[in-house]
Amino acid sequence: MLTFQELICASPFYHVEIIGGWKGKENSFSIVEDDTACLDKPVLFIIPSNAEKISMLDEYVTIQSVKGILIYGKTEPYIPRKTLEFIETLNKPVLFLKDDINPFSLKKTAADLAQLKTMGLYHYVYEHSTNYWLSLLQEQGLEGFLQRISLFIGQEIFLLNEHFYLHPIYEESGIRGQFKHLASLFYQQSAGNSKNEIFTMIKDGQHHYFLIPVISGNHHFGFILFQEQPSMMIDVYIEQVIHTIPALLSYYKNEESVLKAHQSYKENFLYNLLYNNLESEQQLIKQGKQWGWDFTMPTELMVLRINQKNKMAKTSIDTASVMRKIRSLISSQFLQVITFLLQGDIIIIVFDSENLLPKHRKELSLSLAQQLFNKLEQGLSDLECQIGIGRHYASNLELFRSFYEAKLALELGKYEIRHKAVRHFEDIGIARLLSNIHQHKLHEYYTEVLKDILVDKENSTIYLDTLHAFFQNNADINQTAEQLYIHPNTLRKRIKKIESILNIDFNQLDDLLEIYVTLKIMKMIK
After folding, report:
1. pTM over 0.70
2. Given phi > 0 = left and psi -120 to 50 = alpha, else beta, which region is 334?
């Protein structure tokens, strides 16, 4: 005896269209017949798709020994709606095979399949069906593939990734995390099981689920999941689903290689954008559209750098997690963002409104960067992050300038008297000018201005620390003294001593500025 569930796993029957009555998929038949005079056993009745035979469908389907009907032929049959509704009430499968096949051939094939089942060799039929699933996946894509499996077993099939989230194909339904809670149940249940288990059954309240791993070697792509139903022929269902896995693996591997190539192409495009290798704005806009980026919109560029607070520590940096947090925060403000790694830094390109004034655009960048810093600092106990922001340019083809400026803001910001975690290129002051002067000339300048202090090996460190603290506190005697843990009068005497050594007067703006710039140069070089 062969069930309709088993029949459609074999060639040529896996090409059939299920017209109705599929609730009777577990009906069994022992013979295939096309003659109403030979209906003394449970039978699959076959008829050609001509109008005369189709008009008698109501009569055929009500015969007690007929467990289901297969219509065959090149022409798809027209079956009235009332007849379809009637078929559904009987739970007898009615199938259509679009093939002008010889009825004798259909009988012979079905008889051979029944013989294989009797001999316990039906697993060869399932194995042979793999080619069908591969072909179907290529022709109809993943969505058509899943619909067909779901149709075969009479319920929806779900694809989960290794973290128990639904495949992105389900994104529109908004249920990606629907089965996330099954992860803990699965790992608890499979803790003592063999790694070679074909499937795991998980109990979740009133529901039981079959979970079949999709694995190739050591690469775990995820799971196929479906729910147990009453009176389910478990062996048949599992066999059917398992033999779709080679096709799924082929799809996943192909998708993975395409994704890698796509990622490589995307990275190359972004690299060219930031290093001024694109020929025109039209090329920029056209290529950006491939990833859904609208480069006709204004952009702001930031560079985020994460460093160890303790140089001796070896804390790992989960940059993927950091980038997810960045995207989450910026997306929550209804802004589109690009994040990617480049030379150890995280590059952030934010698309903003066309209607912002330059002042407001800069304020938005600083506010956004500060929010990012605050959010990331909470989860980076042993790490510190800094953010450099470049200027906005009218053309996105000049993002390379903004990129250079953001990196410069990071580098030169380190030499500021007052340290800031978030720095805009426009706010780094005189260091912007100094960065364009050759280091040899800068070294010459600061050693010449401070030579009389530098030669005093015994006191030079004290004098330089005093000057740094003095400018860091905006020349405020009391605050500087407090930072240095000395009395204000002691500080005043020390300042006078420095003025005397350098032959300067801090009451003169020129002298004050010269020492301030010299200290900044010294810090930059060292």
Report:
1. no
2. left
Helices 245-274 & 281-289 angle (0-180, nearest 10): 160
Residues in the chain: 526
Q: In what order do the strands lie in the sheet with 207-216?
A: 158-160, 219-227, 207-216, 200-204
Closest CA to 27 of 91, 86, 87: 91
Question: Tokens for 74?
Answer: 């090149």
Look up residue 447 and give its two tokens.
């050693």
| Cα–Cα dist 464/470, whole Å | 10
| pLDDT above 90: percentage of residues in the chain | 21
The tokens describing 411, both together, are 């580098």
pLDDT of residue 508 exceeding 90: no
Q: Are 267 and 340 in contact (CB under 8 A)?
A: yes
**Long-range contacts of the stretch 432-440 (C-beta < 8 A, 24+):** 432/408, 434/517, 434/520, 434/521, 434/524, 435/408, 435/524, 439/525
Quick: pLDDT tens for 182-238. Answer: 888 888 777 666 566 778 888 888 888 888 888 888 888 888 888 887 777 777 788
For the stretch 146-163, pLDDT in tens is: 888 888 887 888 888 888
Cα 482-484-486 angle, rounded to 5 deg? 70
